[in-house]
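[audit] Reproducing an earlier prediction to check determinism. Same input, same settings, fresh worker. If the tokens differ from the archived copy the diff job will pick it up downstream; this log only records the rerun itself.
[audit] input (697 residues):
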Amino acid sequence: MVRSRPLEEALPAMKGTLEKRLLLLCFFALAITIAVNTGFSVESFRRQYREGILRRCSTLATSLKGQVERVLALGIPLGQIEGLSERCQSVTANDPEISYCLIEDARGTVLYRSTTLMFDPANSKLAGHLSESVSVVDTAEFGRLYDLAVPLYDFEEKLAGRIRIGFQEKVLKVLTGEHLLWSLLVLGGASAAVFALMILFIRRDLVMPVRRMCATATTIAAGDFNVKLPPMESQELATLGDALSEMASSLLQRDVELRNRYRDLEEANRELQLSYEQLETMSADLGRSREMYRSLLDDASDAILVCDEDDRVLMINKSAEQFFGLPRIRVEGESIAAFLQDIRCHNFAELDAWYQAIRPGRASDTEIRFLQPFEKKLLVGWATGAAIVGKGGKRFVQMIIRDATREEEIRQQLERAARELERLNQMKNSFLGLASHELKTPLTIILGYVELLLNEMSSRLDEGTREMLRHISRASERLSEIVRDMVDVSMLDNRTLELMSQEVDVNSLVSNAVEKSREAIQQRRQKLHLDLAEDLPSVRCDQERMIQAISNILGNAIKFTPDFGLIRVRTRLVMRPRLPEKFADDGPGGVCAVNGTLHPYAEIAVIDSGIGIARNEQETIFDKFYEVGDVEEHSSGKIAFKSRGAGLGLTIVKGVVDMHGGTVWAESPGYDPERFPGSTFFILLPTVSPAGSGACE
């Protein structure tokens, strides 16, 4: 009993001290967390918003650069291009966050500008660089500006000027202030709620158990040993915490693995996109080289030499002086052989024989290679020679030499470029096959883990986690379909796709394909009408591959037909002549050999009421990656209206149909997203004889 009183007196003090310390600790922890999180959030928001505006500036500048350089390629000076001031004004008008847009020449003189903010680069002070093309400048009138500069090149690849697009830092300050205020309000409210919960937790789960233990100790101190300590909840919470920690650790490992696989996939996609952009750049460079080559030929002045009957140079023109690097006074009067030696002709014997051959009167062409005496430069010319008869019956030899040095260099460059394009194309095809096979294994792992979590561990996950896993599953399934398409295209390119040929009813192929697409048609609330001819002859094909081809065409019709639209599928028997390249004498079994008669075909037509196809695109839609187009038009959904995928579906259709000796094409009045003219896809497959032997009648 002596010890019980001090214990009772110490209990309130201990409670107050412990509770206050814990509450103060929680308060300061929340305050520091709010401050740090708000600071990082605001700075991250500011950087991301700044980078977003810079990306928009870069996109607008690149677009304007392409338009201006196409005009510069025509030889028009930058200062004489009309409409650029209005174009600059439209840039700032369409994007209020962009403060100015101007175009200056190579010396920095502003030629065109928007009127929203009269920024003059000459009156600014450089404060730093964010990148090679983005500068931070300070101005007395407008404060700090972020300035993006894009160079402009003329048709000679010389710097013609720059496009400058930028915005004021106060745009970021205003948005950052709004974001800071909103973050403080949200985090402050959330912190108040959390702090209230902490107070409740501390009082219920810490202070009360200590009070019960103190009461028990007081009872024991009084001499009553028949007491039972109430069960404490901390042990059960600790056990639950350990279990949750183990589960969280397991989920974390799997999430890290999924993220690593996704990063690998993104890297592979970036490399594929980079390869495609390099091919496009090479193609553009090749086109510019061809235009430069034509310009050189059109503007070239030819060198002319005239020799008399004694094979002495009678006269040369000014272009010949410049071309051969020898003055007229030195050349005129000496023999043609001495002249060729003076210019150090590399093919002297060939030219001498050519000259002797044209003296009797036969016109001929040849190449001349020589070393210019003063510049010591190897030049190439294309000589056209012919004998002419002057007054008194005198015979002269006239030679017109065109400077082909640049032409030879361009030819070598074109050959190198062609070889490089061929190499890059082979690399692209090899990468396509490699990427498709390498992606199958990680995708299988992803799908396996997701299925395991959803099926066997679903009860241990909350609804939010299950929904995220379902999203991962759907996205992985979609990506798996793209990988399968990539594998099919790779096998078609390498001619390694194996077919299981058998006689199949055409209408059953269509019915199976329709069943695979029926759910998508119902989701889009479209109408499907089947017009299947009876008593169609069988076709010899791989049933699964042909169903895949018809399903791809149906999926294409579903995507580009609006909701409540009509899709019709028709089969019929048509008579067509067979193509020699598809039906040789040693063709596939069941297919007749080539002759001049008409043969029966099974025609499958998919007719939609969609947006149609432009006439100049009705052949190219079967090319690989044709649908890739603009990034904003892509859709991860398979049936979203006007969505675009990887551009492999129709390529697979053409490859499969071609392997079966058939043909596929599209017909449409044109592209019109307002009136929906529709389009029709046709598949022709050769039929087998009624007996199934494939012999010709």
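[audit] rerun output stored. Observation attached for the diff report: The CA atoms of residues 433 and 463 lie 39 Å apart.
[audit] end
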